[in-house]
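re: that complex we talked abt at group meeting.

here r the seqs, copy pasted straight from the sheet so there may be weird spacing, ignore it
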Amino acid sequence: DAGVTQSPTHLIKTRGQHVTLRCSPISGHKSVSWYQQVLGQGPQFIFQYYEKEERGRGNFPDRFSARQFPNYSSELNVNALLLGDSALYLCASSLGAGGDTQYFGPGTRLTVL
Amino acid sequence: RKEVEQDPGPFNVPEGATVAFNCTYSNSASQSFFWYRQDCRKEPKLLMSVYSSGNEDGRFTAQLNRASQYISLLIRDSKLSDSATYLCAVKGYGQNFVFGPGTRLSVLP
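got the structure back, here u go
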């Protein structure tokens, strides 16, 4: 069975640009969460979506937005990129929105120049 | 105080050694606890969930101490392949997962 997939794998953008990251959860999983991980730190929670509704939002500016589609895939959008947005963006898939175990995709490594 | 803190590391141990990591959490309402391992420039992979009574999976043993609000991970007979960063994750009811900063382990030949 396919695990969590993310695209693209790597991305290089310049300050001020916009980026869209994509994630497909494990088949049967209805919840997708997004995390930002900078070097040397643990993943920081950005959003959780369950059944197309936002279930949680971390301490990130409004430049960050996300949505979930009817097939449970998800997009993370970041506007007006800053150098500090350079990080590994991880998508995690879980069955439900509760304390279910989360399984991570390979991540998208974003570099902002 | 951060929500989730871990031993700062790095831990450098010889093959065959036993090593233990601790993770403390500040939210007493936390209900779900996990250990993940993360290889360099890869995604975190679930190592094990942590249950109230403690649990073991081969060479790995996880413990939860709710009174003192910490979880631990014990690795016995360390292998070179155990070299990685170990992340703990904590979640409360209706809350989001919170990850610690990770503890890096290097198992030396």
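couple things i noticed - The CA atoms of residues 4 and 35 of chain A lie 14 Å apart. The mean pLDDT of chain A is 94.
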